[in-house]
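Practice problem: predict the structure.
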Amino acid sequence: MFLAISTTGTPDRPATDLGFLLHKHPDRAQAFSTAHGTAHVLYPEASAERCTAALLLEVDPAALRRRGRGKGRGGAPDAALAQYVNDRPYAASSLLAVALSTVFKSALRGVCKALPGRAESPLPLRIEVPAVPARGGPVLVEKLFGPLGWTSVEARPVELDERFPEWGESRYVQLVLEGELRLSDALRQLYILLPVLDDAKHYWVAPDEVDKLLRAGEGWLAEHPEQKLITSRYLARRWSLTQQAMERLELVRLAETDDLAVEAIDNAVENVADDDSDGDSDNTAEETPEERVPSLAHQRREAVLTALREAGASTVLDLGCGQGQLVQALLKDMRLTRIVGVDVSVRALTIAARRLKLDRLGERQAARVVLTQGSLTYTDKRLKGYDAAVLSEVVEHLDLPRLPALEHAVFGSARPRTVIVTTPNVEYNVRWETLPAGHVRHGDHRFEWSRAQFRAWADEVAGRHGYGVAYVPVGPDDPEVGPPTQMAVFSIEETNRDTSTSTGADTDTDTDTDTTKEAKAA
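Answer:
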């Protein structure tokens, strides 16, 4: 099993810097023990103009058999032919990927104390792997490596036997990659994609493989057009692990799109002070001195349920569902035939699934509810065709410049017949004795509106999208400062309804199974 990494250089930046980046001296041949044999590192050529480092992996078939009989999850492809005679010692597979991460561990991380600038800079690279098992052929090789910045991706099929061309081609290819990339990026791509092309692993795929995938895929996997195939194959088609990885990659993609940290996106369960909130934490100061029962959160949910009943809704979206308190209340109303909870936070959805006990629901109840990950600032065809959508204590968690995107996604694209929006009334904050003056009710609130500001926004949204809007106070309606929570109920006339939209159950059929399983798995 062989892999060669070549680069070119100049007198100012000699090619032999490759030795510093790989942490392997060009003048010495070195050997490293692995679980299944010995890895050798040597330099066939090393000059200022051109340098080539080679990794030669000698696999011990007996060790491979002792440690798993040549099988990982799903089995090594040819191990069934014999326990000792198969392609594992020769074809670039997960064995070579593990050797790469072991022998070139620091290079894989982009660490080079001697030449930190070189480690961060692209190099002219040529990578050759003589025998790569490619289940999908040269076309798949191009699909996997093509989007990653290589100027040339060559996957030449290997004939079964040159003496008998009529036998055709084998499933192996000679892989040659050329382009200017950072060495660490190139190594991380190989670490992931060699096992993906082989579609097998020599070891059991445990949950920690998700973390390995995300670490090695940082910076490129979240946006890769073949992300799903890569994730599924790398995780040996284990459904639960693949779902977990896809959810985390979606968070990465959203964070990169909005130029935010992942933690800033997946924050729905941080600092939760009251387990009785609607996926929100503004209840830190929301118990009135005069009336402690029912809580404001309970009154808010009751107001939402009443508005849904008056609208005659039977299919409902809970957008920004958080930990599922409102979804739980909606499930108790048997007039609602379909309830979909959407949140960007994987952690919040996991808690919601546990709260709802989705894994214990009967078949009829389970068919009514779906939890799915999604961002409310992006259009999503899965959200079209529902009778109503609820944004309960959600809008104040968005930066003001992001509100037009949410407006378009909900009112312009999804266009439910009824939209219910609740948000804190900042004027009422003076009634909270425990809330310092000038503070918002929760640290993640980007703003809190007065009644006039909320009505101005809602009136503009309704006018732009053909809705009527009514305002409902939630909680004690103080004659001076109004209620603690303000609610707007948007209703669209049938003449303005997009007649091309079908029912929620129809439009969401494609995502039903996956999202239901996702919630149950959580």
